[in-house]
C-alpha cells in the first residue's frame, strides 16, 4: 500500500501547481541516495519535477500548468490531476522502497520501471482473445 503524505494544489503567477510531499523527512546520511533517485526520475519525467530539499530534509513532486490552458481546455485539469497522482504513487513507492531496503537507487528505479512495464503488458492483454 502506498502512503502519500500530503497533496495540495495552489494557484499563483497564472499557474496551477500540483504539489505532493513524498517523504516528510529523511536522515542526512541518505541524502546522496535520495538525490540519485530524484535525478533518475527527473531524467525521464516529461511531467513534473522531483525536488529534494536538503535544508529541511524532505522530498516533493511538483507540476505546474498554465491557467489559460485549463480555461481553454477544462478536461486538462482532470487529466493533469490524474497524471500527477499516478506519478506521485510511483515516487512514493520508490522513495519508500529506497528507505526501507537500503538498496542502491539505480536498482530501486530499475525495479519501478520493470514493474510498470509488466503492468503495461497486463493492461494491453486485457480483453484480447488468444
UniProtKB/TrEMBL annotation:
Superkingdom, natural source: Bacteria
Name recorded for this polypeptide: Uncharacterized protein
Taxonomy of the source species: Bacteria, Pseudomonadati, Bacteroidota, Flavobacteriia, Flavobacteriales
